[in-house]
Fold these 3 entries.
Entry 1:
Amino acid sequence: MRFALHAVDRAMEFALFAIFLAFSLVGGLQVFNRFVLGLPLSWSEEFQKFGHVWMVFIAIPVAYRRGAHIGMDAVLVRMPAAIRRGVELLIEILWLLLALAVCFYTLRLMQVAQFQESPALGWRMDHVYTGLVIGSAYLALVALRRLVVIFRPALAEELA
């Protein structure tokens, strides 16, 4: 189980790297074409927008898994341990609900978006929205892992 979860984590991090690299290269190509060749690319801005959307929705669960999101814990650290644990549990449940809601409503949106194409690239818009589904599914997986650790601390190392 640990190996599979580790592989998923690394795959998501590699996807972030690949997406960032792709839209950075396209941005550099656009600058070169516009200012050196005088021939701006008509599709680069749209490509970069879609890349940013994918990157953000995949980066959210990666940062959440690493504990890198900014948190306001000034009140939380002053709470008694039992209340703190309850609040932490509520936070994990809310993350899971957010992930499920984003996934559910994006899938509904994709049913309509399959009939639309992006203007510059000609890509079907449901393919563009797939990044939201992937990111929210990964977010749900991370939230479930963290919930299991709350209820079964002995499994923390197995799911880390």
Note: The helical segments are 2-37, 44-66, 81-113, 125-128, 130-151, 156-159.
Entry 2:
Amino acid sequence: MSNAVIECILNRSAAKYYDPAATLSDDQIRELVRIGTSAPTSFHLQNWRFIAVRTSEAKARLSPIAWNQPAITDAAVTFIICGQLADSSVIPERLAPLVEAGVMPETMVPEWEVPARDLYMEYPQRQRDEAVRTGTFGAAAMIYAARSLGLGSTPMIGFDAEAVHREFGLADDEVPVMLLSIGAESPGNWAQKPRRPLDEVLDLI
């Protein structure tokens, strides 16, 4: 089983070394996020936001609250991947383009909104879990898109979440899920590391 998509996934590895002189245009950054937002979200909530830290000034603000990891200053851009707490009240607005395009009948909208309200409204942990899931799906799509474009990527959880929240003006309902650096690689990065055997992680029942 092999094709270009699978090879891209199997050949990806987190980059450690970036070419600090290489940049990405704003249009290239927008395209990475456009691809990221094609990832699945529960009830089509699309509960995410992406902060592209790309200028030297912004990188200088992020670096000290993210353990001074070299990727933040060396990579062309570091995204702050924000997941938003699941809020069922936005579902009619998020589904409106589907209704307008004739993909979904308007009568189906409450069939999505009502169960989402039951699932999330009284359950703060579920709201936060969904924020993290959503942000992770979007970041993963961007990781593989970067690889397919010949770029490296580095997902990072080493940062002060409260400081990032404060310094970059995240809203009360936003969770900084991870940082994701993307840019042109320098030599010396590892190939994908060996994974655990399938018989340790797969049950066929």
Note: The longest helix spans residues 124-148.
Entry 3:
Amino acid sequence: MPKKALKGITRIEYDGVSTRGWMIRLTRQGKRQQMFFNDKAFGSKAKALKAAQDQYDQWLSTAPPVASTKGIRTHRNSSGKVGVHIVKNTDERWKNAESFGYCASWVDKQGRRRKISFAWKRYGKKTAWALACLAREHELTDRTQVIELYEKQHKKKGAR
């Protein structure tokens, strides 16, 4: 039966090295705290673990909340919209058979990866971009819903 994982606490035990103990680490807002609890210094493996857990709990009680990076653009983003990227599809059966589109992707509340894409050939490059951005913004995988939302927004703009 696998042992229960201890968040922020790692067992350090190498063959051929006499140093054995528990390492605790906590990172918040780019600042990392870490401390090592040696088995010998605390009298036993269990006592070192207890001390490590107590210290980690103390750090947690004073640490700021975890900052979410959802929706924050990073250097890896090249499209300009978080969660939207270009996709290139190729078909090995035919020479030069490739198509392009925009794909919106995100992780839902259950932790599952979701995505939907819109082909340039079918929707046009500009509309495919707008549809993918809408799908990402509203986290929709139903193409019909995304298109209805897009049409609703464009009717309002045309009525002005």
Note: The beta strands are 9-13, 20-28, 31-38, 84-90, 98-107, 113-119.
